[in-house]
Amino acid sequence: MTTDPHALDQPAGHDWDTAGFSTRAIHAGQDPDAATGAVVPPIYQVSTYKQDGVGGLRGGYEYSRSANPTRAALEEALRAAEGGGAGFAFASGLAAEDTLLRAVLRPGDHVVVPDDAYGGTYRLIARVFGPWGVDHTPVDLADPRAVLDAIQPGRTKLVWVETPTNPLLGIADIAALAAHARSAGALLVVDNTFATPYLQQPLALGADVVVHSTTKYIGGHSDVVGGALVTADGAQLPVGLTGPTGTTALVDAIGFHQNSSGAVAGPFDSWLTLRGLKTLAVRMDRHVANATAVAGYLEAHPRVTQVIYPGLASHPGHEVAARQMSGFGGMVSFRTGSLESALAVCAKTRVFTLAESLGGVESLIEHPGKMTHGSVAGTALEVPEDLVRLSVGIEDLADLLADLEQGLA
Ligand SMILES: *Cc1c(COP(=O)(O)O)cnc(C)c1O
After folding, report:
1. H or E stretch including 231?
2. Among 8, 64, 190, 238, which residue carries the largest CB count within 10 Å?
């Protein structure tokens, strides 16, 4: 019996951790297949593994909920991409979040959440964990003082950070919030979905664990749903908590819960996600270039009342973003002055497809108030009704600008 599914015999190879980002994304965990020399990890579409005598596991593989070679390759690549201690791949971003929350929280605990958190994250914390006795406080994370005030020493076990946030693209100072969380014995988790590990490395800024919806930029092609957790090297559970395996290591608790609850990424989904990860850097360069140009275009447009993009000097979080990100991302939000005009733009664009989600190669447009954030109307997370959100893709910029021009006409 393997008790730690991550204690696998990794094929001998380079120490990719000292390599650059793209080299890590392309090679970490992905040495050519030992049996055949296959250059990319095969899709091990298999549930169980022959044992050489009872307990004689080959490479640590026993049953694919506990560990699967294709998933292990993805987990190692994600770990290396974030510069962490261990990676875990899940069936969705919310499955990853659910596993983290179970591993870290107990009834009576308290969580600080962003006041414009991803709607599904807020729903999970408020409406799934709430009835199990977990309390939460929504806070504007752009204000570290407000976060400090919301922390209840001894009760707060997690400070949940998104930066940039969705859809208002608020910026939180990761290093400042990590220090606040640590002084209260709580963990700092950063949902790095919008920024991606290419543009932002939260673990290096003091976060304990990073969460991803790999459905978005890491997958990058709108063809797979997945999630991930990457823990900081040596990360511990909140002060005072011992995990189910008898240790205080965060990696042990998450590994136990991943295997016990079983919301793992399947082999094919893992393979698609790995395929996306390899080109993350080149895609992000184009996303950032296009988004920067789109934000500048919209800022000069008479029918647009406000443009929200962390790369603009007018953004209140611009300086913090410039310090902790190597690029400002591919998401741009803007306001049109009325619900009617916002809905009209969403109805008219052609290159920007009207759809939820984000982070794929194709440009998307959506109305958060009626679409992704419809479920938070009337709560602290409600968004303005004239807000439009763009996921700027990697098409030709001239076509994107022409499409917005006719959409706003
Ligand atoms: C999409 C998303 C999630 C949830 O991920 P799923 O893969 O849809 O379960 C969490 N956080 C952010 C920021 C997201 O955009």
Report:
1. strand 227-231
2. 190
What class, spelled out in words, does domain 16-277 have in CATH? Answer: alpha beta
CA of 68 to the centre of ligand 1 (A): 24
> What's the whole-number mean pLDDT along residues 164-174?
95
Q: What angle do CA 148, 197, 17 make, to 5 degrees?
A: 115
Task: Find out if CATH 2.60.40.10 is the number for domain 281-408.
Answer: no
Expressed in angstroms and rounded, the spacing between residue 215 Cα and the centre of ligand 1 is 7
Tell me the residue ranges of DSSP E strands in 170-218. Answer: 187-191, 209-213
Model confidence band, residue 4 (pLDDT cutoffs 50, 70, 90): very low
Q: What is the dihedral of CA 209, 212, 218, 219, to 10 degrees?
A: 140
Paired residues of 191 in beta bridges: 162, 211
Q: Which two tokens stand for residue 241?
A: 């908590």
Would you kindly state where each structural domain of the chain is located, as residue ranges? Answer: 16-277, 281-408
Q: Which atom of ligand 1 is nearest the CA belonging to 215?
A: 7
Query: 16-277 with 281-408: one CATH topology?
Result: no
pTM: 0.95
**Per-residue pLDDT reduced to its tens digit, 135-154:** 999 999 999 999 999 999 99
Provide the token pair at 13: 């190879």
pLDDT tens figures, 365-409: 999 999 988 777 787 778 899 999 999 999 999 999 999 999 999
Closest CA to 379 of 167, 138, 158: 138
Angle between helices 267-278 and 69-82 (to 10 degrees): 30
- Residues with CB under 6 Å of ligand 1 are 92-94, 118, 120-121, 162, 166, 191, 193-194, 213, 215-216, 225, 227
